[in-house]
Each structure stands twice: as C-alpha cells, then as structure tokens.
C-alpha cells in the first residue's frame, strides 16, 4: 500500500498530462519569468514524488486523508479548467482555492510529522508561481 500511495500523485498526474493537450501553452503570450514548457513535467514529477513521500510520512488519519486527496483533486482538475476548457479566470480562482487547501494540508501534515509538512513547501511555492503565470496569461491573452 505504501508504494501505491508513494507513486499515486505521479501516476495520476501523468495520466492527466497525457489527457490534456498543454502544447498550446507555448503559443500563449507569456508573462516575464515564464519557464519553457519542457520544465513543467520535470517540476511536477518532483513535486508529485514529494507529495507521495510526504503523505507516506503521516499517520493517515481521516482529516489528513481528506485534505490530501481533496487538494489532489483540485490540482488535477485545474489542468482541465485551464487547458481543456480554456476558462482562464476560473482557473485563477481555482488555483487560489488550491493554494489555501495546500496551506491547510501543510499545517496538518506538520502537526503530524514536521518533515512531512516541510516537504510540501516547494509545492506551495510552485503554486504561488503558477498563480502568477495564470494571472499573467489571463491578462496577456
């Protein structure tokens, strides 16, 4: 079971990535500091692995499971909202909600296992950067 929960975020993220056509990203007007599209799968793979490791370090109580899986659902659905449905403003609102969910998750994970909470900080930082990119793309396109 631990091996499944370790790789579940990465596996589901890969499936979402295969379903969603994010190649249009390069054709959008980009805000300053926008990374090349080749970096996204690398960064997300690392973040998804950190999520799995972090989750495996927790005691997996009901509240931990709930916030963890809820933020994962919000994470994966953002891709459909932004890329498939091209609802850029909704994607901004969605990622703001996701950021709040991740902050709650970090706090809850930290209370259970400090390292588990710390391992989620790169995810939060990336989401804040993704919010910046989403707003920039919305304004410029």
Percent of residues in helices: over 70%
Oligomer: single chain
Structural class: mainly alpha
State the domain count: 1
**H/E element sequence:** HHHHHH
| Spans of at least 5 consecutive residues with low confidence | none
- What is the first-to-last residue Cα distance? 44 Å
Give the helix tally.
6
Mean pLDDT: 95
Count of extended strands = 0
Overall 3D form = globular
Give a verbal description of the structure.
- The protein starts with a helix and ends with a helix.
- The protein is mostly helical and 141 residues long.
- It has six helices and no strands.
- 77% of the residues lie in helices and 0% in strands.
- The protein has helices at 2-19, 39-56, 62-84, 88-112, 114-118, 121-140.
- It has one domain (2-19, 38-140).
- It is globular, with a radius of gyration of 15 Å.
Quick description:
With 141 residues, the chain is mostly helical.
Secondary structure elements and their pairing?
Layout: H1 2-19, H2 39-56, H3 62-84, H4 88-112, H5 114-118, H6 121-140
Helix pairs in contact: 1-2, 1-3, 3-4, 4-6
Key words describing this protein structure:
mainly alpha, 6 helices, globular, 141 residues
């Amino acid at each position: 079971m631990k091996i499944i929960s370790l790789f579940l975020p990465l596996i589901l993220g890969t499936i979402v990535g295969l379903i969603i056509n994010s190649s249009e990203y390069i054709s959008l007007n980009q805000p300053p500091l926008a990374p090349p599209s080749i970096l996204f799968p690398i960064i997300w793979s690392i973040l998804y692995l950190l999520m799995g490791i972090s989750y495996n370090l927790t005691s997996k109580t009901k509240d931990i499971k709930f916030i963890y899986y809820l933020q994962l659902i919000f994470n994966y659905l953002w891709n459909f909202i932004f890329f498939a449905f091209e609802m850029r403003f909704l994607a901004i609102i969605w990622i703001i909600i996701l950021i709040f969910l991740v902050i709650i998750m970090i706090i809850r994970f930290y209370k259970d296992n400090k390292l588990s909470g710390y391992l989620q900080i790169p995810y939060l930082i990336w989401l804040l950067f993704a919010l910046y990119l989403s707003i920039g793309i919305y304004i410029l396109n």
